[in-house]
Amino acid sequence: VQLQASGGGLVQPGGSLRLSCAGSGFTSDTFVIGWFRQAPGKEREGISCINSMDDSTFYTEVVKDRFTVSRDKAKNTVYLRMSSLKPEDTAVYFCALGGLHGYDCTQPRSYDYWGRGTQVTVSS
Fold first, then answer.
1. pLDDT, one tens digit for every residue, the chain (124 residues)
2. Long-range pairs for 70-77: beta carbons < 8 A, 24 or more residues apart
């Protein structure tokens, strides 16, 4: 199983970015994809996830109403659309894949596979 997050970059406060998480090598069609981020000196933080069964989504309060997660099944890709970005959103962003049984969307232990992160920097 391989996951690759991409789409990060430098953006001004108030701006937008769309991250992509491309997956390959897994055969199950029942899974959860989570988005995490880690800022320097801080723990990895779960911020959102999407459930493949019904494309239901979850967001933490920190990103709710600003970030949107979606899935393109045909492309095996999950997106994280980020808007109204703030300097405190600066972090390395990761996507991860896990099973649906007993998962906790924002807990790293729920995920078995992780992609390389992509850096998002929000600065003027």
1. 899 999 999 999 999 999 999 998 877 778 999 999 999 999 999 999 999 999 999 999 999 999 999 999 999 999 999 999 999 999 999 999 998 887 899 999 999 999 999 999 999 9
2. 71/33, 75/22, 76/22, 76/23, 76/24, 77/20, 77/21, 77/22, 77/23
Question: Shortest CA distance to 98 belongs to which of 26, 47, 38, 7?
Answer: 26
Q: How many C-beta neighbours within 10 Å does residue 101 have?
A: 8
Token couple for 120: 């998002």
Half-sphere exposure (CA, 13 Å, Cβ side) for 30? 6
Residue in this structure with the two tokens 């959860």, named with its chain if needed = 32
Q: Is the dihedral of CA 18, 62, 45, 27 positive or negative?
A: negative
Could you tell me which residues come within 8 angstroms of residue 34 by beta carbon, excluding any fewer than 6 positions away? 46, 48, 49, 95, 96, 97, 98, 105, 106, 110, 111
